Amino acid sequence: MTFTVWCPDLQRVRLRVGGTNHELRLGEGGWWHADADVPSGTDYAFLLGDDDTPLPDPRSQWQPNGVHAASRTYDHDAFAWSDSSWEGRALEGAVIYELHVGTFTPGRTFDAAVERLDHLVDLGIDLVEVLPVNSFDGDAGWGYDGVLWGAVHEPYGGPDGFKRFVDACHARGLGVVLDVVYNHLGPSGAYLDRFGPYFAGQNDWGPGLNLDGPQSDEVRRYVLDNALGWFEHFHVDALRLDAVHALTDRRALTLLEELSAGTARMSAVLGRPLTLIAESDLNDPRMVTPRSSGGLGMDAQWSDDLHHALHVRLTGETDGYYADFAAPGALATTLRGAYFHAGTWSSFRERTHGRPVDTSRLTGTSFLAYLQNHDQIGNRATGDRISASVSPGLQACGAAIVLLGPYTPMLFMGEEWAASTPWQFFASFPDPELAEAVRTGRRREFGRHGWGESEVPDPMDPATVERSTLDWSELSSPGHASMLSLYRSLIALRRSHPELADPSLDSFVVEVADDDSWLVMHRGPLRVVVKFAEESFEVRTTDWSPESPEHVLLSGG
């Protein structure tokens, strides 16, 4: 087989395979090549210049021994897929479920997660969003500190394990969304800059990529090949692009536009719909505007404003970025137009922020709505869920707004039964100095907000991972079972009444009480009435008046 690696500024590159070093030859564009007769499953590494330190392949497909060790050759064609009849799953009308493989089950693997997929089918889920599965240093972590983007994290089950998971999802009619991170690399095992000019500056999380400087064409190709490879080789149905606002890209043709175009071509080749979902805090509707209309071509984006407005209404929290969402009518404003900050003053940013959404051109499908997600839980000091702060009925009110409103709803794992387990920040860096830096940095960050050191969980303690792992025995407990029944009922209502999945925003009407005690969403001939009250809750259909159409009523408590 032929081994290739991009090292445009080096004078010498060697390949170590089978205990033997091979000199690579320089070809066009800074690409080095070497041929070696080795079978699939052979370990190999690169030696750069006269340094005898072996380094993993930047485009590695398999890292069985961690991010600092040799790469291993991998044959994608050797996996026996059973999803040949899979026609894909479009985003329109879908309900998304976000999960982290390492804490979804006590088994912490793809195979263990497969054992719980029938629960998601029974719940009514359409798309399963998996937090990053690329290789990172250590066994446990959120996945956002990955450094070898094409290699699936071995403790989860490696590349074959992920393929078994996707195959099992498709067998049950579930599409798969994969969370990918291109805005930075993790702090351990990020060797890309030794191979070439991959890095350009730093952001809040680590080194960023050189997307628009000299020799950046191949860096962009590195990202594009990785993204499209998940569609082609792992059969995923969508990508969630982490924090795209942190991408520094001043080119006329942006990386996101290139990825949108490449995804469209891949969709045509594979014959199934493929979706791109961006996380962006820019509040810029051009993110989800088609390329043909001058936009960046993302199919959807996360909408934190919807979360913030709902969170403040349910919990009363007004610290930090929540402050602006305590304004009268903030929830209704955000429900009508996806963004609360739409060219308006943001006290958290100390400037105006965002621009309005043209609801005659964009639909609710383009914006994900959620009561919780991994960030909004895990980035709290103790990783507490909303169910730890509000009554079951108020959580039900929030769920009804998310699931019966015009936006694409997303749940975070365990939300559907008001899981008592928190979801805390955790990592497992083997380097003791790095581990201590992360530990003290986390405590210092929250100490500035009034938390004592003992109150902030140690992210390096294995007990933090244990606490954050779902307890599936809760499903049969009375309080948890009733919440699960409610979520099932809401999703079933959404399916049985097409009006409740209608993403049209130009005809969407929201009414609110003067004292904010109730909210009504007009959904075609239906009305979703949400009463924010401390009493038992129910979901039912009823007549609003003799002459009015059917309504859906949810009472909270």
Automatic annotation (TrEMBL):
Q: Name one GO biological process term.
A: trehalose biosynthetic process
Q: Which GO terms describe its molecular function?
A: 4-alpha-D-(1->4)-alpha-D-glucanotrehalose trehalohydrolase activity
Identify which residues the record assigns to the active site.
D242, E279
What InterPro entries does the entry give?
GH (IPR017853), GH13_cat_dom (IPR006047), Ig-like_fold (IPR013783), Ig_E-set (IPR014756), Trehalose_TreZ (IPR012768), Trehalose_TreZ_E-set_sf (IPR044901)
* GO cellular component terms listed in the entry, alphabetical order: cytoplasm
Q: In which pathway does it act?
A: Glycan biosynthesis; trehalose biosynthesis
Q: Which Pfam families match?
A: Alpha-amylase (PF00128)
Tell me the residue numbers annotated for binding substrate. 240-245, 304-308, 374-379
The Glycosyl hydrolase family 13 catalytic domain sits at 77-444
Q: Where is this site: Transition state stabilizer?
A: D375
Keywords assigned: Carbohydrate metabolism, Cytoplasm, Glycosidase, Hydrolase
Q: Does the keyword Hydrolase apply?
A: yes
Its Enzyme Commission number? 3.2.1.141
The UniProt catalytic activity note for this protein reads: hydrolysis of (1->4)-alpha-D-glucosidic linkage in 4-alpha-D-[(1->4)-alpha-D-glucanosyl]n trehalose to yield trehalose and (1->4)-alpha-D-glucan
Task: Tell me if Ubl conjugation is a UniProt keyword of this record.
Answer: no
Q: What is its main location?
A: cytoplasm
Question: Where in the cell is the protein located?
Answer: Cytoplasm
Gene3D superfamilies the UniProt entry points to: E-set domains of sugar-utilizing enzymes (1.10.10.760), Glycosidases (3.20.20.80), Immunoglobulins (2.60.40.10)
UniProt-listed CDD domains: AmyAc_GTHase, E_set_MTHase_like_N
Name the UniProt record assigns to this protein: Malto-oligosyltrehalose trehalohydrolase
Its source organism is: Aeromicrobium ginsengisoli
Origin organism lineage = Bacteria, Bacillati, Actinomycetota, Actinomycetes, Propionibacteriales
Which gene specifies this protein's sequence?
treZ
